[in-house]
Amino acid sequence: MSPVESHPQDPSPGRPWSRLRPPAMRAVLALGALLVLYLVFETGRFVAGYSILSAMHQRAALQADIAKLKVSNRALQAHVIRLETLDAGHRHEVELVTRTISDLQARIARQSVKLAFYRNIVAKGTPPVGLRIGEVRLSSGKMPLHYIVHVSLLRADRPDGTVSGTVDFSVDGEGLNGAILNNQALTGQRSDLTYDFRYYQQIQQDLVLPPGFKPAHLTVTVRSGRKDIAPLTQTYPWSALSTP
Fold first, then answer.
1. Residue ranges making up the domain that contains 202
2. Is residue 98 part of a domain?
3. Would residue 129 count as lying in a domain?
4. Are residues 131 and 235 in the same domain?
5. pLDDT by residue (tens digit) across 205-227?
6. Separation between Cα atoms, residue 121 and residue 127, nearest integer Å
7. Does residue 4 lie in a domain region?
8. What is the pLDDT of residues 43-58, one digit of tens each?
9. What is the DSSP string of the chain?
10. Cα→Cα distances 160→127, 164, 189, 198, 236, Å
11. Which CATH number characterizes residue 148's domain?
């Protein structure tokens, strides 16, 4: 048998990597180079004072701090919600107390008006026109700044006949530089409201206030049909006459 001839390009049978083909050899060399570079990089960072373990510990500590801050933030948000709830409840209580005080003040004012009326009823003497002004109240109209005034008139003397005359109204307040709104300005009518009864009469009149005007008092003037009798005039706080 003839001896085996070796080809110059064949890998040496004694070297394992010699059996690798050129592409595989280049891949192994590239991977090795990358590993060497990474080791050099880590060595440089270690020499510069950087430690992977220290960085991991710092990151874990920061994550723990972030978790604590999130818990604290949720607790603060819950506390803020409780405070806002308490504040809203306090404001509601203040509004209720304020509304109750306003209602009581208006009720006291209305009772004062009624008390003055009944005092006049039992007092001695007869008004000049022979009648008295009973209950006076205001109700809201169908449109803003529109009101309806209700007035009850009753006899103050012996009803041996009928009494007749006119009733007019005037309002003073803020917004017209001290001016007083007379009956024509309030009602838009030239003639006054008339009455004619023997015992009792309930009358009402529409009133319209100008924009920006804040009423303070309503004055009711009752005039007799007889020229020799002086008119009867009474003034009431506007707030005391408003229907609650």
1. 125-241
2. no
3. yes
4. yes
5. 999 999 888 899 999 999 988 88
6. 10
7. no
8. 666 666 556 667 677 7
9. -PPPPPPTTSPPTT-GGGGS-HHHHHHHHHHHHHHHHHHHHHHHHHHTT--HHHHHHHHHHHHHHHHHHHHHHHHHHHHHHHHHHHHHHHHHHHHHHHHHHHHHHHHHHHHHHHHHHHHHHHSSS--TTSEEEEEEEEEE-SSTTEEEEEEEEEESS--SS-EEEEEEEEEEEESSTT-EE-HHHHHS-SSPEEEEESSEEEEEEEEEPPTT-EEEEEEEEEEESSTTS--EEEEEEHHHHB--
10. 16, 13, 32, 8, 30
11. 2.60.40.150
Query: Strand pairing partners for 233?
Result: 221
- Same domain, yes or no: 145 and 237: yes
Domain membership flag for residue 108: no
Q: In the beta sheet, which residues pair with residue 41?
A: none
Residues 52-77: tens digit of each pLDDT: 667 677 778 888 888 888 888 888 88
- 143 and 230: one domain? yes
d(CA 151, CA 200): 11
Count of structural domains, the chain: 2
